[in-house]
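quick one, two chains, predict together pls
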Amino acid sequence: MRDSPAVVAQAPEHHGPELLHHFARAEQQRDSAALGMWLFLATEIMFFGGMFCAYLIYRLWYFNEFAVGSRSLDIYMGTANTVVLICSSLTVAMGVRAAQLGKRRLLVVLLLLTILFGAAFLGVKAIEWHEKYEKHHIPGASFNVSDLMRENPQMPIDQNHEQIYFSLYFAMTGLHALHMVVGIGIFVVLTWYAWRGRYTPEYHTPIELGGLYWHFVDVVWIYLFPLLYLIDRRR
Amino acid sequence: MTVHISSNKLNVTIWITLMCLTVITATVSFIDLGPFNTIVALAIATFKALLVVLFFMHVKYSSEKLTKVVILSSLFWLLLLLVLSLADYSTRGNVRIM
């Protein structure tokens, strides 16, 4: 029955090959895919939300330690990374537009730029983490914040409580960086298919969904940046 | 409804706004505003996030109302998580706060 010529021949009369037969219209198919992506992002909000919640509670308890830890971060590196991510969001937004308009070469260039910005973000992050490693600010057996105690004589801190700040710092930036690595992986695949010409104005759902993921990771950083780097800079 | 295609002018306008807000929030963090440092930083972050979600993620132009329902419910769950947890921990008399 499946191979019956009558059935096979019937489908293209009603719609193009990009429309799966259980959808009424291409618009409905796109909306369904986007809705599924948003449901996934809702679970991601709760995933990161747990960490944000832990951060807020511990900041209430160990205010001095969190202020001292926050000031030990490099605000210029943090700002540079925010700028890099915002630029990558622009290239993604322009990439979605290029896909909608069927501009293949422009789409490939914009996707490659996005990957480049993503890699730059991870590079800056690696420099920051390496500095923490050299200063013994990574939680563990060699954790030592006597340098921070000397630099902040007006704020008495407890080494164990300071370790909680840095644990949360590495957990939150680490989970975010992991999402960046996954995002770059997704965009490498998207670039490959875009180069092969798979995406057309009729079918470019993967570009849209990949874009939603990338923008979401950007939004997470938009909150991580003030919470980790900014709010305790003065006072 | 046809697919919404954002103009490059809109994309670049949003990008410039986000860049300006980043510079502003970083600069303000050097000024001592007392408790308002936190409020200003988080207000700017929320505005930036709103710009990204509404314009870059096309939520403003989405015809699918269920998408908006999913976003608002996820924000509501997040609010439950944060508000109820903080209400608990910040009103425990036997635990040192701050």
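Helices of chain B lie at 8-28, 36-56, 65-89.
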